[in-house]
Amino acid sequence: MTILDFISDSSHSSSILFDASTFENIEVRPGRILSYQKIILSSKSNASSKEEHDDFDHDADDTSSSNTNANSTAYHHLLFIHGSCGASTQFYSLIHSLQDMLRNHQHSVNSSVQLVCHLFDAWGCGQSSALVPYKPNTKDFHASFSSQQLLLDLEAVLAHIRKQQEEHQDSRSSTLYIVAHSYGVSQILQVLHQKIDHLDQHNKSTEINNSRNIPIQGLILISAVLKDPSDPLTRDGGHFIFKWFPTFILRHIQSMLTQNFIHHVIHPQNIHILQEDAIRLSNANDMNMCKAFYTQQRYISSEQVMEVSCDYYADSSITSSRSSSTTGIGNESIQYPKFLLIHGKEDQIFPLSKVYLFHDAMVKGIEKRKKNREIPMLHVVDFASHQVFQEKPNQVAAMIWEFMSS
C-alpha cells in the first residue's frame, strides 16, 4: 500500500491539542508585529502546540538531549503561508491530516519523525489584524500593505524559523519546506526571485539581501497562478471594485461579496462543511485593510517563475557554478528545491488551465538552464475547488507526505 492509498474517511482526532489561543505576537521587523504559532507533530506521540513547543525549545539548552534526538529523530520544518486576506487557521485541517500520516509512519518504520509547523497571520489578517496601528485613509496605513512590505515580512519570518533551527542545533539534519496557498505562492516565489535578482546585480545593500540565507528543501504550491493583465483577479492592483469603490460601500456589500466568493472557492460537495467558518473569516476582514491590500497586490509573472525554478541561491556550503567574479559574493551554493503543485480540478477562482500555464513556466525555466532537475510534480484533486487543502485535507496531506519522503 502506498501512502496515497492511506486516505482515511474518519473524522480528525480530538486528541490533537492546538487552537488559536496558542498564538504569540512576534516583532518580525521594527514596527511589524505578527501573530505566530508553532505546532509540533510527532510520530511518537500525540501532537500539541504548547507543551511540545516548550519541550522543543528546552531541548536546545540540553546538549545531551539534543544529540540523542538528533540521532533518532528526523526534523522537518514546514512554513504555511495563507492566501489573500486569509488566516493561518485555515491550515488546521491539513495539519490534522499530516498528524495522521505520522501515525501511519510510526506503524510502518521504526524511526521517529517530527514535523515542526510554523504558522503566521500576515499583516492585517487573522489575529494580526489587531496588531496593525489603525489609521485608515492615511498614507502610512496604505503603504504598510504594499507588496514589498509584505515580502519583507515574509523574509523576516523565514529568518526567524532558520534561527530557531540553529538554536535547536538541528540545522544540519533538519529540512525546511514551504506550503503556500494562492497569493501566498506568489509571495514566497517573489522573495526567492528578489534574492536571486539582487545577487545577480551585485547589490547587497537591501533589507532582503542582508537577511540570513534560507535553504529550502521543497515548495508545495497550492492553487498557484501567474500574473495576467487581462484577468481582474490577477492583474496588478486587483479587482476594480477595491480601487474605485469607497470603503463605506465596500462595507455595505461585504456580506454579498463574501457569499459570492465562498461559492467560487469551495466545491458544492464540500460547502456544507466549510461554509460557516469561511463566511466568518471573510466577514471579519476590515474593508480598509482589504482596499489597501488588493490595490497593491502583485502576482508573480511567468518570467519570474522561470528564473526561480532554475536558480535559487542557498547557504554557502558548496562552491557555486557561478564564480565570485560573476556574482561578487564569494563562494555561494545553488540549491535546487523540489516543487509540488496541487490544484482543485473545479477551481472557479483560478481554473485548471491557469496552473498548467504555471507548471509550463517552471518546466521552461529548468529546460532553459539545462540543469539535471526533477520536473515539478502536478497533482489535480477531484471534487475540489480553490480551497482544496481544506476540502480534501487527507488527500493533500498524503501528497505532501509522499513528496517529502521522496
Explain what the structure shows.
The protein has helices at residues 51-59, 63-72, 92-108, 139-143, 147-167, 183-200, 207-210, 240-244, 247-252, 254-265, 271-284, 287-294, 302-310, 324-327, 352-369, 388-391, 393-405, and strands at residues 24-29, 32-42, 73-81, 112-121, 175-181, 218-222, 338-344, 377-381. It has 406 residues and is an alpha/beta fold. It has one domain (3-236, 298-405): Rossmann fold. An eight-stranded mixed beta sheet has the order 1-2-4-3-5-6-7-8, sandwiched between helices. α3 (92-108) links the parallel β3 (73-81) and β4. α5 (147-167) packs across α6 (183-200) and α13 (302-310) packs across α15. The longest helix is centred in the middle third of the chain and has 21 residues, at 147-167. It starts with 23 loop residues before the first strand and ends with a helix.
